[in-house]
Amino acid sequence: MVFQEGGGAVFPLSFSISDFEESMAAYSQLIESIGRQREAVIGYQSRMTAIPALGPDNGGTGEMPKALYLEGVLRDLGVSDILRVDAPDDRVPDGVRPNIVARIPGKSSRRLWILGHMDVVPAGELSHWKSDPWKTVVDGDRIYGRGVEDNQQAIVCCLLIAKQLRELNLTPDLSLGLIFVSDEETSSHYGMHYVMKKRPDLFGADDFVVIPDYGVADGSFIEISEKGQLWLRVEVTGKEAHGSRPHEGRNALVAASDMILHVRDLESLYAETDPIFEPPCCTFVPTRHEENVLNINSLPGRDVFYVDCRLLPGVDHDAVLASAREIMEAVAERHSVKVDVSAVVNAPASPATSPDSEVVRRLSGGIREIYGIEPRCVGSGGGTVAVSFRDMGIPAAAWSTATPTYHLANEFSLISRTLGDAQVLARMLFD
């Protein structure tokens, strides 16, 4: 593009006041119309919640019914450019895990992608719910149900934007891409990771991405970086014995308990800090513990526990694994047991999105305009699909307003925030 300087300002020669006024009029019309879509929010949420999209790792049959519903909604809205990228999975009835890609053209070929995930987590203990988790309940501004926030709030935002663009016959300045993926709650192997592997051609060099799957209640956090994830499995092997004759055995549970207490030794070895994260350091947390013996009067000869390590960008995962082995082996020697430490998840941190990137600039502008607050860039402990894009060099930011009640009983989403978030994302489409 050719630029002309004058009076300290820089203007593209192709720029015209009429173009700008037309764009702003379209934007204002879109924002106003989105704000009136309360009933649409309730309708979309109710129909999606009634489709328990649980992956096989969570005891379900996959996301296909929900995907078919969303495909139908998009076609009814007049979106014709819809693609399915199906990941083979013989554990589900259809044999595939669906991923939906929908594209809406704008005046520019540059594309803003917005991503939501279709799968949800199990409802958990039903007695903790005040209502049926698979039927929405509306109470004022709140709508209750499993998945209404994680991550149907994001999907509804996408549908509202598509709906109003088509109903108002508006063409945004940027093109819009919508991605609804499977398998986010367990691994993303059948979801965004699969899409990136099979169809990297979908994404242009100048595209950028927003993942509405992270945030705080007021929407002031824009996530631009994630910690790496290293999940350790620690298996301790001792010798079984009768509970009345412990001297004849080697208690694997006692040794494992001592090892758990020494997990914190890793904190001093990897004490780097980065203020963009909360907490600003690497964390090492013992979490899951497997069942050992079934009866009380037997001394366990085997014990297994797990450690969730969240590592700052730049921390060497192999070095952490080696350190963990050294610490656990020293404890094992004191208890005369054997120990095996292995990595069950090893996902180093991806490159951070620059705070000066266009996705952050556009998103920040929308937040200021719609919510009237000044956002700041932060890092997270990991877990969003933003890494799939960052690893490919595509700028990605994770952002939304969040209650947060995701993964909890009585999960709810705020209708007003869904409308507001949709307005923020719609704002990004206009220059």
Task: Provide a brief overview of the structure.
This protein has helices spanning 17-34, 38-49, 64-76, 152-167, 192-198, 252-262, 265-269, 317-335, 358-371, 386-390, 415-427; strands at residues 3-6, 9-12, 81-84, 87-88, 96-97, 100-104, 111-117, 137-139, 142-144, 175-181, 208-211, 221-226, 228-237, 241-242, 283-289, 298-299, 302-311, 338-347, 376-380, 396-398, 412-414. The protein has 431 residues and is α+β, with helices and mostly antiparallel strands.
Strand order of the largest sheet: 3-6-10-7-11-20
Provide the β-strand percentage band. Answer: 15-25%
* Count of DSSP strands: 21
Query: Architecture of the largest domain in CATH?
Result: 3-Layer(aba) Sandwich
Largest sheet: number of strands, sense, barrel closure? 6 strands, mixed
Number of helices: 11
> Which whole number gives the mean pLDDT?
94
CATH topology of the largest domain: Aminopeptidase
Enumerate the spans where pLDDT stays under 50 for 5 or more consecutive residues. 1-15
Going by CATH, the homologous superfamily of the largest domain would be Zn peptidases
Share of helix among residues? 25-40%
Distance between the termini: 15 Å
Rg over CA atoms, rounded to whole Å, is: 25 Å
Q: How many structural domains can be distinguished in the coordinates?
A: 2
Please state the overall shape, judged from the principal axes of the Cα atoms. elongated
CATH C-level class of the largest domain is Alpha Beta
Q: What structural class do the secondary elements suggest?
A: alpha+beta
